[in-house]
Amino acid sequence: MIQEEPLLPFKTWLLEWDADRWGAFWHFLLVMVVLAMLSLVIGLIIGTILHGPVKAGERAYRVVANAFRELFHISPRRIWAIARVAMQEALRRRVLVAVAVFVLLLLFAGWFLKTDREPAKLYFSFVLTATSFLGLFIALLLSVFSLPNDFKTKTIYTVVTKPVRAGDIILGRILGFTLVGSLLLLVMGGASYLFVSRALTHTHTVAAQKELPERTSRSDGHSHKLEVRDDGQIIAMYEHGHEHSVEKRGDRYMVSPPEGMIRARVPLYGELKFLNRQGVEVEKGVSVGKEWGYRSFIEGGTQAAAVWTFDGINEDTLIDEGEDGRYLPIEIVVRVFRTWKADINTPVQGIIQLKRPGSDLKTEPEFFFADDNTIDLKYFPESLTDTNNQPVDLLEDLVSEDGQLEVVVQCLDRAQYFGFARGDCYIHLRDASPFWNFVKAYISIWVQMVVVIAIAVTGSTVLSGPIAMLFTVSFILLGFQRDFLMGVATDKVEGGGPIEALVRIPTHMNLISDFKDQHFGIKLMRLVDDGLQALMQVLASVLPDFGNLSTADYVAYGFDIPWNQVLQQLFLGGAYVIGLAIVGYFLLRNREVAK
Amino acid sequence: MADNVVVETRALSKVYRDFWGRQKVRALKALDLEIYRGEVFGLLGPNGSGKTTTIKLLLGLLFPTDGEALVLGKPATDVEKNERIGYLPEESYLYRFLNAEETLDFYGRLFDIPPEVRRERIDKLIKQVKLDAARKRQLREYSKGMTRRIGLAQALINEPDLILLDEPTSGLDPIGTREMKDWILELRDQGKTVVMCSHLLADVQDVCDRIAILHQGELKELGRVEDLLKVEDVTQVSARGLSAECQNEIRDVIARHNGELLSMDNPTTTLEELFLSIVRDSEARPGRRVVREEEATPPENSGESTEPPSTAS
Ligand SMILES: Nc1ncnc2c1ncn2[C@@H]1O[C@H](COP(=O)(O)OP(=O)(O)OP(=O)(O)O)[C@@H](O)[C@H]1O
Ligand SMILES: [Mg+2]
C-alpha cells in the first residue's frame, strides 16, 4: 500500500504554526480571508465602474452588514424544513433505484471477480470503488440540479419571500442531500459487507481416512496443506491469505470458515533512511525508473541498506505467545527489481538485522527470500545473538534508552535491487476490528460525498444545472489531480509550466534538458508560466485532495485506518462545508432571484 | 414615514439588462407610490406595463436599478420584512411533488409558528380554500384553479399584514373569482393591507379602494376608484316615471343654463373607458403624466366602515 506522507498527529495537523507547513486551520483561515478580500476588491471595482465609488461603497457595506446580521439569524428550524423538502425531492426522484442498481451490480460481480491471489483485496477494492463512484455520482446528480430547478420553475420565489436566509437554503440543502446520501451509503455499505464476507467464505473437505491426508480438497481455486500442531490442533496451513482450523469428530473432519482473511493490522511505522554502496548514509537510495518512483532502491551485494528507526519500543510492543515467550513482530514488504533475470523462480535473498541506534551492536543476520510485493513476517524473540555470537536481550540491549530501535535490511544477490518506502516495514502491533475498519472506509467515502454535495450546492446557486455539474465535476477531477497540479505549480514536476510543456510536447523535447538559446520568446514563455503557475498554486491550495480522502486501500490491503486520519478527514469535510456555505451564501444572497 | 404607510416607493426604476449588461427593457420608470394600512390597492395596466415588476421589486426578488422601495418600514431587500408578508405569484410556483398539506407544512415551518398553531392553521386554510378533498394529492395533479387556491393558502400561512397578489383571479372560474374577491374583502375587513395587480377591470373595481394605472412602466393615474370614475364636469341624472313634458322641461332648464345634454341613459361601468382612454392617451402622448392624486386622507384602519367617504375636491 502506498502511503506517501506520514500521518501527522492531529494537533500538529490542525494547528501547527510553522514556516513550511501551516496547520489546516490556519490554511483555512488564510483562504477565507484572501477570498473575502478578493471578492470585496472585485466587487468594489465593478460597482465603481457601474455606479460610481460612493454607491459601490454603500452597496459593499450593505452586503457585508447584511451578512453579519443574517449569520445570527440562521435557524435550525428553517434549515430542517428545507432539508426535509430536499429529501422528499430526492426520494421522489427515485434515488432508491440507484441502490437497486448497486445490488444488482454486486450480484453479477460475483461471477466476474475471480482471483487466486488475495481475494479480499480484490473484493474490497471493488466494492469500495463502486460505492464511492456510484455514491458520489448520485450525490452530484441530486444536489446539482436542485437549486437550478427551483429557479427554473420559479419555486424559489415563494421560498425567498418567506423569512428564509440564504444561509438556510444552502445549509438545508446540504443537510438534506447528505442525509439521503448517508442512507444510500448505509444500504450500499451493508450490501457490500455482506457481499464480501459471502464471497470470501468457503470451506474445504478433508477425506475421512485413518491417517490425516496431506492436503484438503480444492475449493475456490486452492487447497491447503494440513498440519497437526504440537497441541494436537489440526491446521489447514496459510494459503491465499488465510487458514482454516480443522476439528476431528469421530472419523470425520470439520473444516472451519477461513480465518484471518479480512484483517485490519495496526502498524507502527518507523523513519526510513538509506546507506549507499559504501555504507554512507544518504537521503535516498537508487532510482530505477519512473513507475517505481515512489520507492528507493538498494543494490544487492554491497553495503547499501535500508534502515528504519522505530520509536517507542517497550514491553507493550511485543506480542505475547504464552509459553513460547514474547516476540517483536516485524513485517516487511519488498519490491524486487532484477537487472538480470537469473532464474525467475529462485527468489532474491536478503538479510534483516536489528540494531541499537548510535552503536554497532547488531543481531546476527536473519535470512529471507524476497517474494515481490508480498508481506513477509519476521518474529524476533526477546533473546537474540549478536554478530559476535554473544547473547543480547532485545529490550535491554538493542533498544536505546529513549525507546528507539533500528531495523536494517540488505539485499545479498549481486546486481539485484530491493525497493523500499517508509511504509514497507513496520511493527505489527495488533489487529483491529475489520468491521470497524470497513465502517471507517465508509466514513471517508461519506466525507467525500459531503464535500461533493457542498461544491454542487454552492456552484448551483449561480450556475444553471448542466454548467454547475460541469463545474463540480472539474472540481472533483482537479481535486484528484491536486498533487500533480501542485507539482507543476511549484516546479516539482519536470518540464516547466503549462506553456513550456505545450512547447515541449510537439517539439519532442526531453523533459529535463534546458532550452538551448534563451531568446526573448523563451523568457516571455517563462514569465507567462510563472503567472499561470501562481494561479495553479492558488487553485491547488483550495481544491479538496480527493485522492487523500480515499481510504479504500487501507481496507483492501488489510491495514487499520487510524482514527486520527478519520478525524482529520471529518474536519476537512467540515471546513469545506463551512467555507463553501459562506461562499454560497454571498452568491445566493446577492443574486437577483427573479431575473 | 407615516405610521400607516405600509409601502412606499421613491423614484423606483427597473431596467432589465442582458448578460452583458446591455439595456433591454425599461420596465419601470421612477415610480412614486404610497400604500396605506388597511386598504386594497390595485395596480392596473396592460400586459407588459410593469405590474409584476413592481411587485417583485417590493418583495426584493428584483433589485431596483434606481430609487428605493420601503415595505413595512424596511428596505425591500431586507428578509426580516417577510415575516409579515404574504405573496401569491403570477402562477403558483410551488413544489409539485408535495401535496397540499405538505406544501403548507413546509411554508409554515419557515415561520416561527408553534407546531400546534401551524397544524390548526393548515387545516383552517385548506378548508377555507376548499381543497379539503384534495389535501393528500400531489400538486402536479392539480388543475390551474386548484393551484391558485393552494397558492393563496400558502400566502396566508403566516397571517400576514401585507398581502401581495399578482393577478389573483387568473385561472379561476366565475365562482372562484367571486370567492377570491370575497376573501380579499375579508382580509381587508381584518385590517390587512392588500396589494393586487390585475388587468381584469371588473375585479379591480369591485375590490380596490385605490388604484394606480401603469402603462409602459409609467404611472398614469393614481387615486380612489370612485374619484377616478367620477367625471367632474358631467352630471348624471337618472329618474323614474318622468313624463315626456317633464323631460322636455329638464332639457330646457339645461339649455337655459348653457349646458349640453349628453344623454339621459343609465350609467355604465366606466373603469373600462377610463382605462382605455388612458392607454390611448398615453400612446398618443408618451411621457409621464401628472398624476392627479388629491392628497386624500388615507383611510383609517377601520373594520367595517369601508364605505368610501364621498370627498369632493
Ligand atoms: N426577466 C425579464 N427580463 C427582461 N425583461 C423582462 C423580464 N421580466 C419582464 N420583462 C419586461 O418588463 C416589462 C414589464 O413586465 P411585467 O412582467 O412587469 O409586466 P406585467 O405588467 O406584469 O404584464 P402582465 O399583465 O402580462 O403580467 C415587459 O416589457 C417585459 O417584457
Ligand atoms: Mg404580470
UniProtKB/TrEMBL annotation, chain A:
| Keyword Manganese attributed | no
Keyword list (alphabetical) reads: Membrane, Transmembrane, Transmembrane helix
Q: Where are the transmembrane segments?
A: 24-50, 95-113, 125-147, 174-196, 435-455, 462-480, 570-588
Ranges in coiled-coil conformation:
none
Is this entry keyworded Transmembrane?
A: yes
Know the name of this protein? ABC-type transport system involved in multi-copper enzyme maturation permease subunit
Question: Per the UniProt entry, what species is this protein from, by scientific name?
Answer: Aeoliella straminimaris
From TrEMBL, chain B:
Q: Where are the transmembrane segments?
A: none
The record ties this protein, via PANTHER family, to: ABC TRANSPORTER ATP-BINDING PROTEIN ALBC-RELATED
Q: Which residues form the ABC transporter domain?
A: 7-241
Query: Has keyword Nucleotide-binding?
Result: yes
- Pfam (any one): ABC_tran
Q: Which GO terms describe its molecular function?
A: ATP binding; ATP hydrolysis activity
- Annotated signal peptide: none
Query: Which of UniProt's keywords are assigned here?
Result: ATP-binding, Nucleotide-binding, Transport
Q: Which domain of life is it from?
A: Bacteria
Map out region (Disordered) in residue numbers. Answer: 282-313
List compositional bias (Basic and acidic residues) regions by residue number: 282-295
Q: Which organism is it from?
A: Aeoliella straminimaris
Bias-annotated ranges (Polar residues): 299-313
PROSITE patterns referenced in this protein's UniProt entry, alphabetically: ABC_TRANSPORTER_2 (PS50893)
Query: What is the name of the protein in this document?
Result: ABC transporter ATP-binding protein
Q: Which CDD domains does the UniProt record give? A: ABC_DR_subfamily_A
